[in-house]
Amino acid sequence: MIEKISIDGFIDIHIHTAPAPFNRIGDTADIARWCAEAGMGGAVIKSHFESTVSKVHHGALNVADYPNFKLVAGVALNRGVGGINPGAVEIALHQGAKMVWLPTFDSCAHINFYGGAGKYGSFKSMSLGFRGGSSPRGNYVVVENGMITAEAKEVIDIIIAYDAVLSTAHVSKEEIYAVVDYGLSKGLKRMCVTHPEAPVPNIGIDSMVELSKQGVFMEFCAVNCFPMTPTYGLDQMKEAMDAVGPDYAIISSDAGQPWMPKPPEAIRTFAQGLHEKGIPSDVIRRMGKDNPERLLGFA
Question: Does the pTM exceed 0.90?
Answer without folding.
Answer: yes
